[in-house]
Every structure is written in C-alpha cells, then in structure tokens.
Amino acid sequence: MLSWYAVAKLLIEQITRIGPPMVVQVVTDTCSVMKAAWKLVETKFPWITCTCCGPHVLNLYLKDLGKIEEVAAVIKKSNAILNLFWGKKRWPRTKLREVIAVNHKKEFGLYRPKATRFAGNMRALGRMLRVKADLQQVVVSSEFGGEQKFKKGNDDDTAAPSPATITLSRPSSSTRAASGRRSWRCSRLRRRS
Question: Would you put residue 28 in left (φ > 0), alpha (ψ -120 to 50) or beta?
C-alpha cells in the first residue's frame, strides 16, 4: 500500500505533467492516506481544491443508514419478497411481469440489488413501492394459491386452497423446526382438504 507521501508525490507529478494552471480540482477516495495527500497537494498548488468522490460518500452514508435497526428490518423483508419472486420457481416472476405489462403499459420487473452496493437496496425498495399494487394482485390471485400444483411430480387435481387459507395456516420456518417435519406435513394435508 502506498504511503500518503507517495500518493501526494504521484498526484503532484500528474498535475505537473498536465500543467498546473489547467488543474483546479482533484477528486479521490476518502481514506486517511488520501486526506493526508490532499494537504500536501493544496500547499504546493493553493488554487487546487481536493475533494472526495460524491457517489462514494453517498454510498457510505447509505450503508450507515442501513445499519439502523428499523431500516435493516425493512431491507430484510424486501429481500424476502425478492426471494419469493426470484426463487427457484419462475411462475411468480412471470406472472408479475404480465401484470406489470397490463397495468403500466411497460415491461419491467423487480430490481435485484447487487451484494456489494447498498444503494441498490434503496432502488429495489423504490421499485417495490412502484409496483406494490401489482405485487398484491399477483399474491392474491387464485393462481398464486394453486402455484403448488406447478411443482414437479404433483399431478393431483385437487382444488387449490385460497391464498388467505395458505397465509393463515402455513407454519413459519421456526415453527416447522420446533414441531418437526411430521406435523408440518399434516398441516399441508389439512390445507388440501
């Protein structure tokens, strides 16, 4: 890793190569090495202003914002919704795109944020708010409740339960782990009848 003096020397060398009167600002990262290098550059060239990269700082602010307990809970819930629509099954994602195309006269879907960029979570939340009614329309549709029939090897023609029944009777993952696999299977059989 370069020391602050080596970074400052490199910056001064590049400024001299370009021509000092042509340079008015130097934009870098915000690490302590860069901040120390800024001081040397600004003393050598008093008309040059050294600043940090705006998008980088905004991303750092958003990352800190995401550490707040309430915000982290909302992001966790939004990721659960994304996993439902971007999981192994294609039906929810396909149906959502169809509903969006009809309601908005455009073709777009949910946004999946990249793991390395926190600002993507804000974009994903904004997109979810934009298509909130469409998401609700897909989840409440009778086809969504019958989506279990789309699993491979499930050929029975029993009537699919309504989404409200599934929501009310579906045990959570913690309940499943506590009560065991057998009682979870029993609750699935009760839903079918």
Answer: beta
